[in-house]
Specification:
Layout: E1 4-10, E2 13-22, H1 27-36, E3 44-48, E4 52-55, H2 57-72, E5 76-80, H3 86-93, E6 101-103, H4 106-116
Parallel strand pairs: 2-3, 2-4, 3-5, 5-6
Antiparallel strand pairs: 1-2
Length: 117
Amino acid sequence: MLASVRIETMQGTPVARVNGEIDASNARLLGQRLTDSVPNTAMGLVVDLTETSYLDSSGIQLLFELADRLRRRQQELHVVVPPESFVSDVLQAVNLSGAAKTDTSVLAALEALASSG
């Protein structure tokens, strides 16, 4: 199932919950939607990949580019991934933590963003 995304605002921060698969067929559109969801007033963006079942190189590139765009705007990207998951293994292998923060829950990500401001 291709990814669907639901974006909500929690504690003044956009939280994007991605459900399904991220691949070359949907990564560009998903990336644009995530970028557009972040107002200049937000501390950053939380992308919740808890319900993401698959992530290929296009999805990985999306996350690195999103982290770079946000960093240039003095905002942070926090990615939520379950520790014992395929997506977590992939993100560890490509060292996403060098570009974005990773958290195990949306609440932890929101708390980290609040404390960095």
